Amino acid sequence: MQPVRFLDRELFPWLVSVTRGLSQVLSVPAEDLLPVPSVTVGANTVLRSWQRHVKPDSSQRAAILSVAYGSTKKLLRRMAEESGFQVDEAVIEFPLGADAEEKMLASLEGCLQPTTSLVVLDAIPSNAPFVLPLREAVALCRAKAPQAFVMVDAAHGLFSLPLKLTGPSAVPVDALVTNCHKWFCGPKGTAVLYVAPEHKHWVDPLVISHGYGSDFPSGFYWPGLADFSSWLALDEVLAFWDLVGLEPARIYGNYLVMDAATMLSDAWGTSLGIPAWIWRYSQAVVFAIAEGLCMLCSYVLRYTYDDAEAVQNALFQRKIEVPIKVLSENLYVRFFEALSTWILQIRRVVNVIKGTGAGYGGRVYCITKGV
């Protein structure tokens, strides 16, 4: 009997093999890529390490988008209470128009200051799934807040976007974290954290265990006894994408996006909230998964969370599970389209939401830029 043979002798080579496969997808050295259970854990790892390293005070500021992920906002709020720094939000107004990217960047520029020492950017915000012009946003941060540490929350980015962390098409971020369990089709409990080499010396894992102190990756590979089956299953996911091809899948998904957008706008009698040329021909939005926002307009000028919850519950009773969000005091339906989505499913959502929207006295406007 050798009860610890797998954990002691076989597990880590498999984990390293999976990390190497993911490093090829992201074009980054495997030693710069770390396994974490989720983007939330990865973000906490980096931001708490930043807090210990920088020791920010009331003279410093952090910048985020107004549509940043909720748990990130809560974490930064807690850190600000502990350390005294100010958190500024770049406000994104909805609906987005043809000049959306210019307005996003202008809003970000407006909240960046020389004293901004931390910036968290959402590559694709969860509640408002548009694609941030990431390269331009990072360049703006470097110009307006040259001392800032820039972390990208790319929870929805792996596969949806052609993320590259080195090479001519790379976005020069200080840290990036992305989930494998979303559009990359991996099991839940799998994500990866990238930390630029110049920052490795001060980024520590949330859990200090036996691997800590030997080298940078080892501190993250063993957080204590855990179930590593999800991470090991990524080996098959990588094999699947090698067979199918990431780029062909993104191209196929682009057609799904266009079909869904046409169906929604025709059925609801609206035009696209964002001109098709922005998302159809941009490299950042040619992908196999489409998430969009549909605005439920009515004669009521301001909506609240309670209104969104009421609509979402009404749809749930009709066996439709879709999130309803409040953005700029309007109600939005967030929908997505994946390789496994049937067009009949989209048609059913169209009809059900159309009926629900009519109950709110208004038309439904489709905003399809996003993931």
TrEMBL record:
Keyword flag Ribosomal protein: no
SUPFAM superfamilies documented for this protein: PLP-dependent transferases (SSF53383)
Keyword set, alphabetical order: Pyridoxal phosphate
The UniProt record lists the keyword Mitochondrion: no
InterPro entries documented for this protein: Aminotrans_V_dom, PyrdxlP-dep_Trfase, PyrdxlP-dep_Trfase_major
Domain Aminotransferase class V: 31-208
PANTHER family listed in its UniProt record: HERCYNYLCYSTEINE SULFOXIDE LYASE, L-CYSTEINE DESULFHYDRASE
Protein name: CpNIFS3 protein
Species whose genome carries this gene: Symbiodinium natans
